[in-house]
Amino acid sequence: MDFLMKFTFLQRLFGRQPVEQDQSRAAARDRLQVALVGDRSSVAPRLMESVRRDLIEVLNRYMEIDVQLMTMDLKKEDQAVSLAAVVPVRRIRRQASLPTECLESEEMSLETTPSEEARRPHPRKLKRERKRRRRSLEV
Amino acid sequence: MGKVIVITSGKGGVGKTTCTANLGSGLALAGKSVILVDADIGLRNLDLVMGLENRIVFDLVDVVEGKCRSYRQALIKDKRFDNLFMMPSAQSKDKDAVKPEQMRDLCQEMKESFDFVLVDCPAGIEMGFKNAIAGADEAIVVTNPEVSAVRDADRIVGLLEANEMSGIKLILNRVKADMVRRGQMLSVQDVQEILNLDLLGMIPEDERIIHASNRGEPAVLDRNSRAGEAYRQVVRCLIDPSTPGPSLVEDPGLMGKLRRFFTVGLGSQVAQ
């Protein structure tokens, strides 16, 4: 018992170097992050529905799209998750018919504010924000 | 008016019951009046960890079914503290024997006369979980630095948020500092970043936890236990949230042990 204690102490004293292939911490972290993207999106089906709705709204400003044939998925690859959307485009809008807020003019963007809809943060984010506010009140 | 805190995790075996027993005893040691509620109906264990298994007469199900005059009749007074009580769960019933509204009413009644009500939540996300969180004002999510435990903790946080729970805090249990140093274990920062929660405490892996539960004496009362010291830190944070955040109680090593041996009389003050 005493001998073992001395042994680990000596190991620590001489700073045993970590073996490269022994480091599984990064693997755990990366795998968890990928798994949680899938978990969170599958647990909250309304989240994906909400993303889809917002995406359609934004795209609609610039082009006519076929909403019926549009597909949207989270794809798991080895190391990461990506959002893949296939959106059939019927026609691109002419410059003149673009909504004013889409034109990249400094003056224009000062005058026009994005619609209330577009600025509203996601419910989960809202909840976090509310929580944070509550917490700061407590302190 | 006191506070009801549910201690939950999703995954089983990460240390919810140990955590409940230690925080409860630590709060009682600091002079607070505390009830520990074992909400794990059908699989009760808090009584054993607290060393109170021989004193049970009535249980949680008896209380909600109205078999005793008041919930106080089912409370078991702790051996060590006059201000610490436990509400045992039923062993023979199943988890549907209690409804969330009944738990909410019971917790409400309890917090009117006690400083802290700690609810030990069962593993899983079914009825037992819903019951346990029903009356809670705050939640402590316990997890281990392992992928399965962290993933389940994330699911639990999602469910707690969906139930409008505020003040969700994290306790990372069974941290092996030397494995983290060698890059073989998720660090506290990793877990905190993944779960995006406020850290309430990190408890080092400690064999003395096993000794403590063998004897039915929570490690928070053991002055030589590193986990016990970490639990005392958490207790200080629970009582006064402005206390500086947790720091890992490191394995002192041989020299540290020697030093502690010679200074034991000075360094043995526990949480006030």
- Low-confidence blocks of residues of chain A: 106-119, 135-139
Tell me which oligomeric state these chains represent: heterodimer
User: How many H/I helices of chain A?
Assistant: 6
Number of strands of chain A: 4
> What helical percentage do the residues of chain A reach?
40-55%
Following the backbone from N to C, one meets helices and strands of chain B in this order, namely EHEHHEEHEHEHEHHEHHH
Number of domains of chain A: 2
Assess the beta-strand content of chain A as a share of residues: 5-15%
Number of helices of chain B: 11
**Would you tell me which CATH topology of chain B applies?**
Rossmann fold
Q: Which sequence of strands runs across the widest sheet of chain A?
A: 1-4
CATH class of chain B: Alpha Beta
The biggest chain-chain interface is: A-B, 29 and 26 residues
How many individual domains of chain B? 1
Can you tell me the CATH architecture of chain B? 3-Layer(aba) Sandwich
Distance between the termini of chain A: 48 Å
Radius of gyration of chain A (CA) equals: 25 Å
How would you portray this structure in words?
The complex is a heterodimer of chains A (139) and B (272). Chain A has helices at residues 2-13, 25-43, 45-62, 106-111, 116-119, 123-138; strands spanning 63-65, 71-76, 81-86, 89-92. Chain A starts with a helix and ends with a helix. In chain A, the strands form 2 sheets. A two-stranded antiparallel ribbon of chain A has the order 1-4. In chain A, strands 2-3 form a two-stranded antiparallel sheet. Chain A contains 6 helices and 4 strands, in the order αααββββααα. Mean pLDDT of chain A is 71; it is low at 106-119 and 135-139. In chain A, strand 2 (71-76) and strand 3 form a beta hairpin. Chain B is an alpha/beta fold. Chain B is 39% helix and 16% strand. Chain B has helices at residues 16-29, 46-50, 60-64, 100-113, 127-134, 147-162, 177-181, 188-195, 208-215, 226-239, 253-262; strands at residues 3-8, 34-38, 76-77, 84-87, 116-120, 138-143, 168-175, 198-204. Chain B has an 8-stranded mixed β-sheet, with helices on both faces. Chain B starts with a strand and ends in a 10-residue tail after the last helix. The model of chain B is unreliable at 265-272 (pLDDT under 50). At the A-B interface, helix 1, helix 2 and helix 6 of A face helix 6 and helix 11 of B.
